[in-house]
Design brief:
alpha+beta, Alpha-D-Glucose-1,6-Bisphosphate, Chain A, domain 4, 3 domains, two-stranded antiparallel sheet, 17% strand
């Protein structure tokens, strides 16, 4: 190749380099303009719906955290929003407890911070729900899932599963915002769990599958059931009694009517 040929080759290479550099600068400038304004108004990326595929599904519910948590931990509600019903939670919503599903099987609760976080360990993957207050009147629920266990995988990379999770959160939002959900009366969260746990234990130990106010059978257990009702009425009145009864009914629905009758005449309660 002669001197002229080498000169032409150098010019071509330099021209390509300059073109690529200019193209890169133009692209950066145009992208910057697009990010800074739409119709002349400053914007943020989230305003144009840019969402990373790796972002955890989340949703904002326009209710305080205690209301959202109360609905979430009422296991009879799960069939309405989750897509699978919960049969019971034994012994209750606490670390080490098991969630028994209506379709069979169970999942242990490995982490639980009331109104803040719960981790449910499934056979396929672990799911963590975080409840993040957004001011005093709203709550953001964020869902984080582990990688599939035992070498399992999603054929589509998990896209359809993530879509299902988002749909379930949308259902939860609609239900919590439109149903009349009552929070546990303040300062009684711990007491309600203890009362409920004691009632469940008393009924589980009953040899007759329940109690009668007029029977002499199992008088100590019978009186304990009444005493618990009196304590609840004194602490929080009818509303607190109703809440504890609801918690008990979730765990032992077969005995719910019997408890109603056992508490009849206590405070405003009429069984």
């Amino acid at each position: 190749m002669g001197a002229i040929g080498w000169f032409v080759l150098v010019i071509v290479i330099c021209s390509i380099g300059i073109f690529l550099k200019m193209k890169s600068k133009i692209s950066e400038t145009e992208l910057e303009k697009l990010e800074k304004s739409i119709l002349g108004k400053p914007i943020k990326k989230e305003n144009v719906g840019i969402v990373s595929e790796n972002q955890n599904p989340s949703i904002k519910i326009n209710r305080p955290a205690d209301i959202v948590w109360e609905y979430f931990t009422t296991f009879s509600n799960w069939s309405k929003w989750y897509g699978g019903g919960v049969k019971t939670v034994t012994p209750g919503w606490e670390v080490g407890a098991k969630i028994f599903w209506e379709l069979g099987g169970s999942s242990p609760i490995t982490t639980l911070i009331p109104k803040k976080e719960i981790c449910i360990s499934g056979a396929f993957m672990d799911t963590t729900y975080k409840f993040i207050p957004d001011g005093n009147a709203a709550t953001i629920i964020e869902v984080t899932e582990s990688k599939p266990k035992g070498g399992a995988y999603f054929r589509d990379g998990g896209a359809s599963h993530k879509s299902q999770v988002k749909n379930s959160l949308q259902n939860l939002k609609k239900l919590v915002e439109h149903e009349n959900v009552q929070a546990v009366p303040k300062n009684h969260e711990h007491d309600t769990e203890n009362w409920t746990r004691t009632l469940v234990k008393l009924y589980d130990q009953s040899s007759r599958g329940g109690f009668s106010r007029w029977s002499e059978d199992e008088p100590e257990a019978r009186d304990s059931v009444r005493k618990i009702g009196e304590e609840i009425a004194e602490e929080g009145g009818f509303d607190l009694m109703l809440h504890v009864h609801s918690m008990f009914a979730q765990q032992r629905p077969a005995f719910a009517r019997n408890l109603e009758m056992m508490w009849s005449g206590i405070g405003e309660w009429q069984g």
